Structure to design on (174 residues):
């Protein structure tokens, strides 16, 4: 026999014989033609192919505080990836439920609504000036002659001033 048996390699590496058998099936061990295990080459291959977190758990190590700097950075990256994936899933769920909307689309809709409202207010004095003049003349005791055109200009002045004040408002969706 050129190399070690499964039992010998188990004792050498400090992991169970069952784990050795799984590693052999998964191709994480280097095996000689006679079926024995090349310990040095297998140690290197197992280290390259095995998750450091899994290695520490199988040997009973503390996954939070043990290990080299490489495995620590691996854990940080793995945690960051898991958090990112969870956030991505949560956003997808919110989008499906309709509680999350596209920001650019929302801004476009708000702008369109504001423009429509402004257009209605700009044309309002033209529509109501004559009606208002007639109503005021009807309700006064003394006969008055109110010019609809003058009333329209006065209303337009006040509506424009109000629209200018509203133009300073900004929608912040951020």
């Amino acid at each position: 026999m050129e190399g070690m048996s499964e039992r010998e390699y188990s004792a050498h590496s400090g992991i169970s014989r069952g784990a050795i058998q799984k590693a052999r099936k998964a191709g994480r061990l280097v095996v000689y033609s006679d079926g024995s295990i090349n310990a040095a080459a297998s140690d290197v291959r197992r280290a390259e192919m095995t998750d450091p977190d899994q290695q520490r758990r199988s040997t009973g190590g503390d996954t939070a505080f043990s290990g080299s700097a490489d495995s620590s950075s691996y854990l940080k990256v793995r945690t960051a990836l898991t958090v990112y994936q969870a956030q991505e899933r949560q956003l997808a769920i919110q989008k499906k439920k309709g509680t999350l909307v596209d920001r650019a689309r929302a801004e476009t809709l708000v702008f369109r609504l504001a423009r429509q409202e402004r257009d209605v207010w700009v044309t309002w004095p033209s529509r109501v000036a004559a009606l208002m003049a007639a109503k005021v003349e009807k309700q006064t005791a003394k006969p008055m002659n109110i010019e609809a055109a003058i009333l329209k200009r006065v209303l337009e002045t006040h509506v424009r001033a109000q629209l200018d004040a509203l133009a300073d408002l900004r929608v912040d969706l951020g």
About this structure: The two ends are 70 Å apart (CA to CA). The mean pLDDT is 85. The first helix runs from residue 6 to 13. DSSP finds seven helices and no strands in the chain.
